[in-house]
Amino acid sequence: MKFVGIVGSNADQSYNRMLLEFIRRHFKLKFELEVLEIKDVPMFNQDEDQSQSFPVQYLYNKITRADGVIIATPEHNHTTTPALKSTLEWLSFNLHPFEDKPVMIVGASYYDQGTSRAQVHLRKILDAPGVNAYTLPGNEFLLGKAKEAFDENGNIKNEGTVAFLGQCLDNFVKYVGVVSQLKKPKPIAPEDLDCGKPISTTITGVDPDDPEWLDKAAKLVNAVEGDTYVKLDQGLLTVNQLNMFLNAMPFELTYADDNNQFLYYNNAHQDPETMMAKRVPSQVGNRMSTVHGSLPPARMKNVEWVIGTLRNGNQEYVRTIVPGSPAEVINTHNYQAMYYPDGSYAGINEIVFNFKPWLDWYLQTTGQRLVGGSGPSAAPAGHGHTDANSGASDAGGHSDNANSNTDADSGASSH
Ligand SMILES: Cc1cc2nc3c(=O)[nH]c(=O)nc-3n(C[C@H](O)[C@H](O)[C@H](O)COP(=O)(O)O)c2cc1C
Description:
InterPro entries: Flavoprotein-like_sf (IPR029039), FMN_Rdtase-like_dom (IPR005025), NAD(P)H-dep_reductase (IPR050712). The chain is an alpha/beta fold. It has 11 helices and 15 strands.
């Protein structure tokens, strides 16, 4: 499970931040926790809507995609901090990321009552119609005497306190499992598959559907190539090295951007006919509508569904198993959302992968075998199989992350 933790303090030194960091480290096997700050969130002002500002959007996107939220609230004058209240105002004004979201409250403060009064207030705020969170009932983790509670490594000293915190968190994990059943998916807005909404990286001056788009567009932007170095977040590689690296991936990779433009694939196979989701060089740069030009309208709807689902945060990825593959092939497609620094949707990274050799290797190496089940995966009812990038698809279904049959961006397929 993926949770986010909100530090309810904007102070540089915060016991509530320490508490969340401790939870993140100490309980890392129970769930993944990303700690979020509210320091840069502006003071709420109804007359100056800053819902689209970076700090508000960042929180909105992170909360929207999290399975649950843990808020660590300080207590100031028997209530929450103005910074936390202001943040909750922005997140209940024009944006509503807490709607039906499981939330757990914890808190640390100087005095014996350990934020009990602030927690009562926060619980009420979270219950307001504009917030509408599902706050975990019956569990109060109150860390009093916060100054003495942590050791020099930021760990809670008292073992009994840690054990109690663990119990509360276990309850939250169970609660999230139950409450997630009540989640109402956000409506999916129609997608423009014709690339009609250029983004800052869209290269204008060459038609996306031009078969020579790659060379023409590269020339327009003076793209580097060959042995020129590219500085990456965690590395420094030449363009040639990047190509070698990507082409050596034991799966087919595709990149389609936020404007639904098909920008890249790693042609490790040379012969498009041998690809699991066939792509050809002239497709690079294409509009998604062109990539999927041969798909019937119903399947185009599925392409839109995959993209819309990732864009609005209902899911971080969509996985499909393409039915009708030969016995030695388990043709899996994984559509993973990519994100801009503010956490909003930046496009799709698609991995098309034959899972069978890896599965066989695993079974042989571990001496295990597959047992039970009702045979080859029967896709649940719902959306038919799409190929959001490639179109390599067939009939099937979708209802959640598992077993759906969708393909968002690979493109030149056999349809
Ligand atoms: C204006 C102000 C009011 C406070 N009121 C309370 C209070 O009502 N109850 C309490 O336990 N601590 C109170 N404190 C002390 C906080 O518990 C302490 O500042 C705590 O460290 C805040 O959490 P943080 O370290 O995460 O910022 C107050 C502190 C300030 C600055």
